[in-house]
Write a structure and sequence with these properties.
The protein is of the alpha+beta class. It is built from three helices and six strands. Strands 1, 2, 3, 4, 5 and 6 form a six-stranded antiparallel sheet that branches.
Length: 98
Amino acid sequence: MCRHFPEMKLAQGQVLLAESAPADRMYVLREGAFEVLIQGVCVVRISEPGAFLGEIAAVLGTRTSAAVIATRDSVVHVIEAASEVVRQKPELTLAIAQ
């Protein structure tokens, strides 16, 4: 579903999303792994291909609630203007909800 979106490579330790930052894009994990941190505390680790990152803030047009940092070299698909894309592609809404 996300193969046509551009890819972005991140090195281990690189920040994908900063906490409390404005967000207009979301990401879909292709390969690799990330930690989600709130105020420096890891709340979840994500390594499943197809997982969405930053989707809530991007779709709702709010600031991010957590930082997302690559724990190994990773590749994500980048979905720019996420709220608009979700309106145009309802299948993304279902994928995010799952």
